Amino acid sequence: MRIGGRGPFGLVLRRCLAAVWLPTLLAALAGLVLQRAAPPQLADAAAATAAVSSPWLMLPLLVAAIGAAVTAVRFWPPFAAQRPGAETLRRLQRGPLAGNGATIAGALTAQLALTSLVLGALAGSFGAPAARAHVEPRPAREGLLLPGTAPLTFTAADGPVCRTLLLRPHAGLPDGPITATRLEVRADGELLTTAPLACVEDRQLLRFDFAPRSVHELTITATAGTVPLWLPRGAVVLVGDAERPWPLNAALVALIGLVPTFAALALALLGGRVAALPTVTTVVVAILFVSIAGELGPLPAAVRALLRGQWLPASPVFPASIPSLLVGSLAMILSMSWPAGSRR
Amino acid sequence: MMSRVPPIVAACAGLGAAALVPPTPDVGREVAAWAARPAVLPFAWGAFTEARDAGDGDEVFARGQQILRLLPTWTDGHQAFACDYALRERQPAADAEARQLDAERRLQVAMSWLDAARATAGRREIDLLQTLVMLPEIAARQTPGLHERLARHGGAERTDRWLAEAERRFPTAAVREMRTFFGPRLAANMLTAGNRDGALLVLDTAITRSADVRDRALADEWAMRLREVVRALRGETVDLTAVHADPRFAPLLPFLR
What is the helix (H) or strand (E) element at residue A212, kind and residue range? Predict the structure, then answer.
């Protein structure tokens, strides 16, 4: 990889930026117009307006990812079989990947540059809130919560300073006529709220704020009602008090957006050992569409976390990227160990 | 080579039709929505489901609004999303004043949404008007003190206005009585939205409204059926033979098995 600009990295980077900036800009403008055209009608619109803007933010990200990946595949001949000039480039570039690794790096860098700008501009105008860490305390034991049963305790490592608690219990079949189960929540022995907390529906959200305090241990007790509640990991979430700047969160989303593109290009590279350009291009577009628009990859969850004000490093989005990264890495390794033209 | 005549004839016919009956902006919007629906609705429903699992009540209603903008004539959807929003507390509050204020704001937003949806409801507009009349009463049952608060802010006049509008638009002596018979369908919409408490409030209101029915024998029998449904939804063992035999309860039957 020659960073000077004459190697595949620099060439692909420049080509991708030149080819994709305009479609990305148009998609961003279209997203902005569509978001402004139909604002939600709510009692407190500020927070939800950002949260429901995810489709309009995804649109330019999808265009940038597909545009950069397709441009790279079409620009660099060794990416697909039977392309004019591919053999010459393979001899010139040497190495197991024949410059394809640098090509992928160039496309990813172009996408990162474009999506960072788009996310910076659009997320701000959509009203992305400052990010707060969402901590999932660990249950000491799992069990059903009913009046008369032992309270459930949850422990949060390091005792983060928090200000909001989100409870989303699973509800079971009632033990007699349905009466909402009332809950009492204590943090390190102190009652967190005097507001009535009652749950009757499955996955019903109970959310309340409290004065910021460090929380090491949460104790949840059922005081009345007939609906048994189950609180597995993830059903209890503590929201941190410290605010993190959303632009940093947006930069992390741009980074996560590279994962599906990397996986798509790596798989296309592997397929390109035997497949021609139209097939390779179709594979890239299909993988990116399914993983971004079809929500199989980590990007949609990351965008929603950004717009809901969840601090990404403390969210499950990063672990969710690992399967895509592994698939991409495996495809790259297979491509290296299966050089192009080995069939002949 | 394909003949160019058919496309030219088709284009001329299209222009002629447009000249004779100029398309309005509403028609343009409807055509755009018709074209966008197949591509957008699956993703919109996916986002709505995700919001119900991981978002809050505001986000759920806002995602619902995105769906309803694509399906403006779906009155059941308008009722279900708007009533669910109005009757689902956003945050438990110890302070009664704060609860009432929040409930009133949610109610106003929901009613404003339902009022706007009337323009595209066609012959189902009466359903939306009945919901507009009933919703403040249902919400007042849920939040103590809301009735008085609404009364201070002209709530009774607003309800009367919607009822008068329903009678004006659908001039029949039964409009006032229809509120109680409208209860099962609205309750079924609430149950579909996953709001059992809201459905029970709707049915309780329908039982109260059965007093409007002039035929007392019919009213008593209807109220009895509604009470049976309420008891069944509360988890009690009830003989529902009469409810199953009554076609007016058909929307509720899937939730009574």
Answer: strand A206-214
